[in-house]
Structures are given as structure tokens and as C-alpha cells.
Design brief:
Layout lengths: L15 E2 L10 H10 L11 H14 L4 E5 L2 H12 L4 E5 L4 H4 L4 H5 L4 E4 L9 H8 L10 E8 L10 H13 L3 E6 L2 H8 L14 E5 L9 E5 L5 H10 L8 H10 L4 H21 L5 E3 L6 E5 L2 H9 L2 E2 L1 E2 L6 E5 L6 H13 L3
Parallel strand pairs: 1-11, 3-4, 3-5, 5-6, 6-7
Antiparallel strand pairs: 2-8, 7-8, 9-10, 10-13, 12-13
Helix pairs in contact: 1-10, 2-10, 3-9, 6-7, 8-11, 11-13
The structure holds pyridoxal-5'-phosphate and threonine (THR).
Pyridoxal-5'-phosphate (PLP) binds next to helix 3.
EC number: 4.1.2.48
GO molecular function, one term: threonine aldolase activity
Family: Belongs to the threonine aldolase family.
């Protein structure tokens, strides 16, 4: 049964969304898959045929044996992972700008019964390995202080930068030397794979990563993230924690179906490639305009730039939706997605170049 896209009010909106990749709809391939797999009965709680196949299919994608746990949000994926990777008296070492530190309302601390997030600075939104080593070796065994237990990196980062494979491996080496577990927030994992031109394996377990939040929601799915465990011993605990968190979906087939479609025919990577290409088009257009400053070098789908209040107002008045001033006065964050249209980027650049600065 083919889906026909109705003329929904959203489809005829006159605004152009650059607020986040969370604004995007759903890839037609995923919708089609959902329709096909929504017919008939299926054993609930992840015991349906499709769900039971995902460990094997994700193991193929990552070229090693993995265990997967599906949840509906990225915050759940991050928090449940970190809770299982650290004792309650442990510390998660993360960048100050990390999502787990700023945008998850204390969920990592809550689900872990009090794990402390300790921030480790570094340029370009990336943890500095030397600063990491300094903090990871402080007060070890001192009963009066939390004990470093996990390092969490975001790949791609919150500013759109990406750790190089060498940088990921350097952090992995610190983890190995100091008996720390290694977590990756991969809400924009596909965008980073495309930007680096590497394989999923090279960007994860081959660098020492133990657990990954494999993002899909921002990149074509309508609400599912995959906890990918390279340390498969974590699976049981995370499954119990998922149930206690109220995130064990009874109709799990509808999450599994999304992921099954997402990892088929390279949809996950093709979507990210398009989003990244649209952001590159945006950066190239902005770089030619006086009075607008590109910030934070990025090869993925996030573009930060600094512009005058009048320019921001002009763009908003012309129907371009994006977050501004949240990261500093005049700083705008522009985020493209798998469905961003080239003509909308052209229109944005036209208005930007014509506006007063
Ligand atoms: C880097 C990063 N990690 C995790 C998340 C969490 O995702 P969610 O909003 O689905 O909880 C987001 C937000 O979309 C994000 O940008
Ligand atoms: C703002 C943040 O929570 C969200 N993840 C975004 O990037 O849009």
C-alpha cells in the first residue's frame, strides 16, 4: 500500500525551519515500512520477530557483536546508559556544553541515583584528553569524593564539530588506562560518520567506545533511539532500568520497524549526507556576506553564526525559524535536516544578503 502525502497544514506552512533537526518529519521509507508492519498481531515488549532480529542487523552494521536496547528519546538513551555504566557514587566526565550537562533536566543524575557530572573543558566543544587525564586521576580511592567512572563524548558535538578518529582513540586510551567506561551520545551519529567518511565501527568500538546512543529521531525516524552496546554485559541492567523508567514500549515493533527501515538501503547515511550538504551550502552562502560571522567550524548539519539584531529580526519576519541569542547575543543556530530544500537555503541567503546588517 503506497502512502499518499496529504496536503497537511504542516506541508503548506509558509515558514522555513532551521530551529533544529527535531522539526523534521519522517522519511517516507520509514512511514511505508510502518504501514506494512502495522497489520496483524505481534508479540509485545520487543519479542516480535523484527525486534528480535535487530541485534543481528546492528551487529552487521557495526561489524562486531552488539546488543541493542530501543528507547523513544535521546535523553533516555543517554541517561539509562550512564546509570548502568557508573556506580551511584561515580562521576561522568563530559564537556561543559554537552547535552547531558545542559539539556536533559538532570535525567542522567536522576536515573543513576546521583551520579555527578564533572565537566572537562576543551576547544570546539570537544573534551581535551590531557585535561581529562588530570581529572580522571584526582583523589582516586578517596571516600570523600565521587570516583570518575565514565567518559561521555557527543559525536557530532552540540556545535556541529566532530572528534577525529585519532581524538576519539586518544580518549579511549585514557579510559583504558584509568579503567573508565566510554559512552558516546550519537544523537547526530550519522552526520558525524558522513563528515569523517569513516565506518560506524571505526568511530565507536575500534576507538574503545563501550556504549552508543545511535540517533535516528533527528534524521528521519519519528521517535526512536538505539542504545548500541559494544560491552554487551550492560544489556540486562539497561533493560531493567528501561522498564523502571517507563520506556519499555509494549508495541515495540513500531520502534523496531523504524530502525529496520532506517538501517536499510543506507537510508540513515543518505539522510545525513543531505542534511550535511544543505548546511555546507548554507555556510558557503553566509561566508560570502559581509557583516555575518560564521562561528564554530563544522562539517555537519549545525551552523552557528553571529549577526545583528536587525538581521535576526528580518530573517524571522521573512518566515525563517531558528534559535537566536540562546548561545550569546546575536548568536544564531541554524540546523538543517534530511528534508531541507536547497531552494529554501537559497531563499535564506537572498534575504540575509539583502538585509541591513
Ligand atoms: C546532542 C544531543 N543529544 C541528545 C539529545 C536528546 O534527545 P531527546 O530530545 O530526544 O531527548 C539531543 C536533542 O535533541 C541532542 O541534541
Ligand atoms: C536544544 C536541544 O535539546 C535539542 N537537542 C536540539 O538540538 O535542538
Amino acid at each position: 500500500m503506497e502512502i499518499t502525502m496529504t496536503n497537511s497544514p504542516l506541508a503548506t506552512k509558509k515558514t522555513i525551519g532551521l530551529t533544529s533537526d527535531n522539526i523534521a518529519g519522517v522519511s517516507p521509507q520509514i512511514l511505508q515500512h510502518l504501514i506494512e508492519f502495522s497489520v496483524g498481531d505481534a508479540t509485545p515488549y520487543g519479542n516480535d520477530e523484527l525486534s528480535l532480529e535487530l541485534d543481528r542487523k546492528m551487529s552487521t552494521l557495526f561489524e562486531t557483536e552488539v546488543a541493542v536496547v530501543l528507547v523513544p528519546t535521546g535523553t533516555a538513551a543517554n541517561s539509562l546508559c550512564l546509570a548502568a555504566m557508573s556506580p551511584a557514587w561515580g562521576a561522568v566526565l563530559c564537556h561543559p556544553n554537552s547535552h547531558i550537562n545542559n539539556d536533559e533536566c538532570g535525567a542522567p543524575e536522576f536515573f543513576s541515583n546521583g551520579v555527578k557530572l564533572l565537566t572537562i573543558d576543551g576547544d570546539d566543544c570537544k573534551i581535551d584528553p590531557e585535561k581529562l587525564t588530570q581529572r580522571a586521576t584526582l583523589k582516586i580511592g578517596d571516600v570523600h569524593t565521587v570516583q570518575p567512572a565514565v567518559v561521555s563524548v557527543t559525536q557530532a558535538t552540540e556545535t556541529g564539530s566532530v572528534y577525529t578518529l585519532d581524538e576519539l582513540r586518544a580518549i579511549g586510551d585514557v579510559c583504558k588506562s584509568h579503567n573508565l567506561k566510554y559512552h558516546m551520545d550519537g544523537a547526530r551519529f550519522a552526520n558525524a560518520v558522513d563528515a569523517l567518511g569513516c565506518t560506524p565501527a571505526e568511530m565507536t568500538w575500534k576507538a574503545g567506545v563501550d556504549a552508543l546512543s545511535f540517533g535516528a529521531t533527528k534524521n528521519g525516524a519519528f521517535g526512536v533511539e538505539v542504545i548500541v552496546l559494544f560491552d554487551t554485559s550492560l544489556k540486562n541492567e539497561i533493560e531493567y532500568r528501561r522498564k523502571r523508567a517507563g520506556h519499555l514500549m509494549s508495541k515495540m515493533r513500531f520502534l523496531s520497524t523504524q530502525i529496520d527501515a532506517y538501517i536499510s538501503d543506507n537510508l540513515w547515511l543518505n539522510n545525513a549526507q543531505h542534511a550535511n550538504a544543505m548546511a555546507t551550502k548554507l555556510r558557503n552562502g553566509i561566508s560570502a556576506i559581509e557583516g555575518v560571522e560564521l562561528l564554530h567550524p563544522s562539517k555537519t548539519n549545525i551552523v552557528f553564526c553571529k549577526m545583528s539584531p536587525i538581521t535576526i529580526a528580518t530573517l524571522h519576519e521573512h518566515g525563517f525559524e531558528f534559535l537566536a541569542n540562546r548561545w550569546g547575543d546575536g548568536v544564531a543556530r541554524l540546523v538543517t535536516n534530511f528534508a531541507t530544500k536547497a531552494e529554501d537555503i537559497d531563499a535564506f541567503i537572498d534575504v540575509l544578503s539583502a538585509s541591513d546588517k
